Input
Amino acid sequence: MRQLSPKLLSWASVLDEQTRAQATTTSTLDIVQPHLALMPDAHLGKGATVGSVIPTDGAVIPAAVGVDIGCGMRAVRTQFTAEDLRQRAQTKPMADLRVSIERSIPLSAFRHNKQVEETALPRIAELEELAGDLLPTIEERSGGWRKQLGSLGSGNHFIEVTLDEQDRVWLFLHSGSRGVGNRIAMHHIKIAGQLATEAGIDLPDPDLAYLSEGTDEFDAYLAELTWAQRFAALNRDEMMERVVAQLAWWIDESVEIAEDINCHHNYTARETHLVDGVERSLWVSRKGAINAAAGVPGLIPGSMGTASYVVVGKGNVESLHSAPHGAGRQYSRTKARKAFTVDDLRTAMVGIEYRDTDAFIDEIPAAYKDIDQVMADAADLVEVRHTLHQVVNVKGD
Output
């Protein structure tokens, strides 16, 4: 860990100047207390850096939560082994499993379920009940949110069949609150900006506008944020149920779940941390970071062709009980498409069943930081429990 400025601590050994400058700027806000913690996977983001932990006193910065509210991961360990997969693949290709998953879950941006699936009904009922009087507002943000439940999205979101260090089969997926979460986030980022302008608040970046506790705007954001975070968790649950069903179909045997881990990495929560040696109740926004309090399980994926990790938090105080959420980009999507080819991607994905398309060039492992270096940087934040390697990868365009 290095102290880069009075209120900026960094665990990133690979850090470009733009990202460092953005994090430094955010840390100078008076509401940021006691300091901003920059994770090993940090890279440039909207307003606030992706891969940062931003504790705020009496306010929340919507852009510091991110536009994919509640984005996170879920992983389950099954009773199967690599040998079970090899045996089955002799009579039914692994590609059949990938295609069946792709058919059961809508992939890519703006793609949703054509109709509400029966498995989604109890989850939708829970979300309607959670919304209560807020439901008309949610409908206003996105009238099609019910059909979004159980859809993956695009970018770095994925569904994978993986093997751990003991050759045990895990199912692993990464997604968030889809279009409804994005619209909630963008609405409140805009509101925060308008309030800052009206109040004459001088901000180093307009996207660092915040909502103060005790205001109607703050309460409205927290209510919608809480709902979107739950939507994201249930979205992962719905997808995992379908992935489990497809694995059961492919392998022709019921799936037993031995371990189950679910965690957010774009969210805010009320937590108690030390400020000048005194415990204070703060709003902690983790934008591309996971909760790594002592004993808390977590998930840190690499890229589509590298290792992912099942971890447990060490409760590091200076990191505000946090850890990285993944590898973190080194190349923007535009730069990655200029730097790499579809043949480069094929080379990186040897041995992994995936959809061979140039749509994924910007997701090539080389566009991301070295996950092994990220994990080395995070050695005092988490303990590695399992190392996972993909055998099947599913992504959206």
User: Anything to note?
Assistant: The chain has twelve helices and 17 strands. Residues 216-251 form the longest helix (36 residues). Residues 352 and 391 are 5 Å apart (CA to CA).
